[in-house]
Structure formats: structure tokens, C-alpha cells
Amino acid sequence: MKNKIWLSSPHMGGTEQKFVNEAFETNWIAPLGPHVDNFELDLATYTKTKHAAALSSGTAAIHLALIMLGVKRGDEVICQTMTFSASANPITYLGATPVFVDSEKETWNMCPKLLNSAIQDRIAKGKKPKAIIPVHLYGMPAQMDKIMAVANIYGIPVIEDAAEALGSKINGKAMGSYGNMGVLSFNGNKIITTSGGGALLSNNNEYITQARFLATQARDEAPHYQHSQIGYNYRMSNIAAGIGRGQMEVLDAHVELRRQNFETYKKEFAPIEGITLLAEPKGYFSNRWLSTILIDPVFANGVTKEDVICALLVENIECRPLWKPMHLQPVFDKSPFYGDGTSENLFNNGLCLPSGSNLKKEEIKRVCTIIKNTFANTTKSINDLAELV
Ligand SMILES: *Cc1c(COP(=O)(O)O)cnc(C)c1O
Description:
The protein is α/β, with parallel strands linked by helices. It has helices at 16-25, 34-47, 58-68, 89-93, 112-124, 144-154, 205-215, 238-269, 305-314, 342-349, 361-388, and strands at 51-55, 76-80, 97-101, 132-133, 159-161, 169-170, 173-174, 181-185, 198-202, 275-276, 284-285, 291-295, 320-321, 337-338, 350-353. Helix 4 links the parallel strand 2 and strand 3 (97-101). Helix 9 crosses helix 11 (361-388).
């Protein structure tokens, strides 16, 4: 069996272990401690937001953000349909209903126009949505200026799901700093990892103070254990935060490596008419967390995304379709959806390619060769077919 090539695997920079050892030496083996405080500072400084709370996951961060916005049973929350289920799941934890909105073609993220019509229609039907959750898929920033403008017209707060977009920015402004609150994830496959973890960002200190309170079982200030609210156990451990501090030192370098992966794919696939890659709109900077391709059925000579996935799997290379839109998921089939087919089209024709910052040049070349051969062979077989006829 050939060496496995992963989509996106953890990539340590070297100093993570030093921070973890420090936690052991000082016996800060706890869900709080100096690494947590410093990691929070690192995140706030990097994203130029005023405050950050380190949490156990990105999902926990979305859950707490929704609670703080007062989302309750029977409420509606607007969510980008093209995303990982973790963007939408916390809406249902609260007994609220997700309302899904389709993507635009420029960034593959929430379409501001469809967002506007969705809000108008929900209001006309008697319910104003309580929050909006746009996502920066694969690191590509959503059209945040337009999304915030629509949200502000109706006074609806925005929870910016930047789980895939640490290091991405628009005109130098970091993703995660646009919404009323921003969400990051440090899961094992993300741009940096703490082995599992997340964070909530905000310029509003009340949100972050409240998030820390709720994340540590909502303990009132009293010598005994007293609670006047339901709490959660959602804080990040001092060990995990130590890994995070080390990862922050290499974040920009790793973003650069992922962007180089993308450039290699772009160059290698340039001669293939059936493959397109997503360009950055002017002023946009993507961390290129995952490099993705779209297969255009008109120019692909019959090659489908399944053909490419199979060809790579046989060679022990991980490759995945784009996120299956939430409005197509059995679990969300009763949720309202506002769309024009964009995300379905992306899902039908798109693929995520190996994108880790730790991939070797030869490994990327191996991926490119297999994909190029898949396209070359099909062209040939179609020609053979023509000769037979
Ligand atoms: C990974 C991810 C999350 C969830 O983060 P976890 O830390 O895994 O809970 C949320 N939204 C998106 C878009 C993600 O990719």
C-alpha cells in the first residue's frame, strides 16, 4: 500500500511540546490556567478583536453564542446551507429551527440577496429570525460587508462561523472579527489544532465574560456552589491551550504553505478545461484551508467527481466531496430553505483535495498526476468509442 495522503492532518511547529511540558511542570493540568489566558490573548491579538474565550470546541462556541442572543424553543435562526452540520446543530439544541440560505457563486458562501429575501419572508410569516450564521467555507471569506449591511437593516445579530478561516481576511481585516461574535475551531483537521477545541471572539466584553461563566457550569459568586442558570462544561484545558500557543507561532507560515498547495493545483490543472478553482475576489485573502476543484460536466468528457474520488482512493489518497448542503440532509428536511440551486450544484460537482501544510511537494504532484490521468484516460475512451461507432 502506498503512503496515505490525508486531506488535512495536524502539523506541529515544534514549540507546542515545550508549552505542554510547562503545564506539567507547574501542575496546571486543569480547564484553566496561564496557557488558557495567554492563548486567548494570542487569538484576540491575531484577529484584532478585543476579547476571546477558549472553549472545548467550535460547536460549543456556537451553542453559547446562540444562548447569549436569547435563542429559545420555537425561534428561528438563519444559517448558511452549504456548511458542516456543526454550524446548524446548536440551533436545534435550543429547540429552535434553522432557516437555510443558499450560497452565491463568488465565494460559495451565504448570498446576501437571498439572505435579505429570506428575512423578509420570515418576517411576513410572523417570525423575525433571532440570529444569522454565515460561514467562510474552506477559508474563503463570505461577503461580510454585504451580509452585515443586510443584518443591520433588520437589527439581527450575526454569529460569524470562522471555524475554517483563521488566518483569512478581507482588506486586512481578520475573519471572525466582522460579526457580533466570531467562532473558531481547533479540531484536528483545521488550520491549527489544539487536538480539539474552539473559541468565541467578540469586541463586546459582556458576551465573552458571560461565555466564560456559562462554560464553567454557571456558578454564581458565592462561597458554596450556587446556580441561578443552567451551565455547561465547555472550557478548554490548559494542556490543549499550550498546544494552541505553539500553533499560533506557525499559523502564518502554515497558511502560506496551504496557499502554495493551492497555487500548485492551479498551475497543474490549468490545461484541463473541465477543472476550475475558486479565485479570490479583489481584497480577499483565503487561508486555503482546503484546496477545492469544480468539475464542469460540459467540458469534463464524462469524468465525474466519483471517478476522481475512486482514482485517488485506490492510491490511498483521501479526497472528499464538498459539504452536502444542510437543506438536503434528512435530519433537516423540515427546515425552510431559500435558494437558487447554487449549493446543490457545488455539491454535485465539487471536490476537496489533500491540502495539509505538512504535505510534501512529491505528494501534491502524485495527487495531480492521478487526477490528470483520470481526465486523459476518459478522453481516450470516448475517442475509442467514437471509432467503434
Ligand atoms: C469544524 C467546524 C465547526 C465545528 O468545530 P468543532 O471544533 O469541530 O466543534 C463548525 N463550523 C464549521 C464550518 C466547521 O468546519
